[in-house]
Model the fold of this input.
Amino acid sequence: MKIFISADMEGISGVATNQQLSTNSEYQRFRKLMTADINAAIDGAFNGGATEIVVADGHGNMSNIIIEELDPRARLVTGSNRVMCQLEGLDESFDGIMFVGHHGREGGSDVTVISHTLAGICVNEMRINGKVVGETEMNTYVAGSFGVPAIFTSGDDAYVKEVQESFPEIEAAVVKRAVDRFAAELIHPIAARKIIKEKAEIAVQRAKNIKPVKLDGPVTIEIEMKGPQQAKMTTTLPTVELIGPKTIRFTCGDIVTAYKHMWGCVIIAMTATNGVLGQVNA
Done:
């Protein structure tokens, strides 16, 4: 059984603030915690029947996981130039996808730890065919197009509740309680890894009974940006329509194409945040 793990950092055990995720001495500590949480998921997945695991580092510059400390039974996709971002390497050969250390969406109904969608610097909200979604929901739909079911996730309690509202069958490891966007009630990382390992094992055992979530037909994505300059610059792509001062919309024939298109828009929006694009071309 072949399992894909998409790993983020905001939902890792011990994480509560942005300072723990950036390039400083704190960040080095939390890279280790991230790698350890992933190892717990890998261990549990193999105990549950997995025979092959690929991990995609999906946080920030997507090169956070410490390869020399990663479980040697897994392979690692790392580095930031990726067409499929957090899902690089995923295809029809996988039997399930697991989300380790993921987080809630921007503006969700409940406060989740370090909530954001795609890129906190530019995105307020994203909708797929009219439904407000976060990164996990989007990734689950893309995985479903390959026939791969979402079987596991780990993060804070509010995030898990958010995901299970859309996908009630997904197995979840709650590793902390959300107090505020930059505050959490933590359990010891060793205790968190025990939960991750146990839930990951159950998830893989149940994988064959969980159906992929598929979106048929054309997919329309709307993204509300934080600044009008961000929205406006995405219309350099002729398929993107400006439907409000800060909101864009585009339609693609399938979810995978829409996913790639979405990341293209986000990259443009990030460069437009402070007029960086004009400086680059000057």
The first strand starts at residue 2 and ends at 7. The CA atoms of residues 26 and 271 lie 27 Å apart.
